[in-house]
Design goal:
This protein has 360 residues and is mainly alpha-helical. It is 41% helix and 4% strand. The strands form two sheets. Strands 1-2 form a two-stranded antiparallel sheet. The protein has a two-stranded antiparallel sheet with strand order 3-4. Helix 4 crosses helix 8 (247-259) and helix 5 (148-165) crosses helix 12.
Amino acid sequence: MYLTSNTGSTNSLTPNIPQHNITTGLYSRRKTKQKKKKKKKEMNFTWFFLLSIATILVSVINGQTPVKPVVKIVKGKKLCDKGWECKGFSAYCCNETISDFFQTYQFENLFSKRNAPVAHASGFWDYRSFITAAAEYQPHGFGTTGGKTSGMKEVAAFLGHVGSKTSCGYGVATGGPFAWGLCYNKELSPDKYYCDDYYKLTYPCSPGAAYYGRGAIPIYWNYNYGKTGEALKVDLLNHPEYIEQNATLAFQAAIWKWMTPPEKHIPSAHDVFVGNWKPTKNDTLSKRVPGFGATINVLYGDQVCGQGSDNESMNNIISHYLYYLDLMGVGREEAGPNEVLSCAEQAAFKPSGAPSSSTT
């Protein structure tokens, strides 16, 4: 039997339930709805809080959170410290640091195929390893010399060498030949141990150790592993395999090589690129000028330079540099004229022949 509702309407009927039960049911439903709304609000707040924390963490990792420098004046000169990335009060740390203009997504763009199934070092290289290694050298001007554009150009130049030396790309490769940098972290089929007994007193070869090419800018020979290990305070002479086991160490070794003069009378690749090096009269006669071409000369000498414009190795390095400039948003037009970009006509800083710090 149905009763008319208490609204007085004869068309609105309710089941034959005692009135107090109807009231209790309505209250219970309202209370349930309120609980659901409260719970939903709490969940929304929790998610918002977690997303905020995640966003902050991602921003820090990606270098998107600017660090306010600690500044002091020493003898009228402004020096800055920016924490983990540019530490130790340096004038260079007052400039933009690398993570200000080069972040994870850009690294991924430059080396988009490095983790492809066919890549030989898949899962090894990453942005964190690079930026951690770079932090050691930013107080000394790596990527921090001059303004933002200068810093971006140096990072592109350094990585241009890295990409060309670790690439497994070829003309018709998926993504193009320049998308395959950091495909390798070591030489796959070395045909010798690269042990030079000339250095048996200073850098003696460790029994069973092989000093074939490893790293971002490959290291060869016992004496190069020895010198690099001394600089990085890592026993690479007895354990050259460390380079292929640790991506941060591999990047550190490459940046150290970029920043360090190979010999007393030869400038570093960093110095010839950023303009710290001033050519002598003999340099001018040898057609050596500051710029990217001179970095090729410092690192590879007459194995690449002074052989005309058709040298494949030189052109491959240059092409990677130009490609990276474009991807980083700088543009290849910033690379300068051909005599600055190339070392085709440059005489080597040190002709090959005698044992030296050559990478090959």
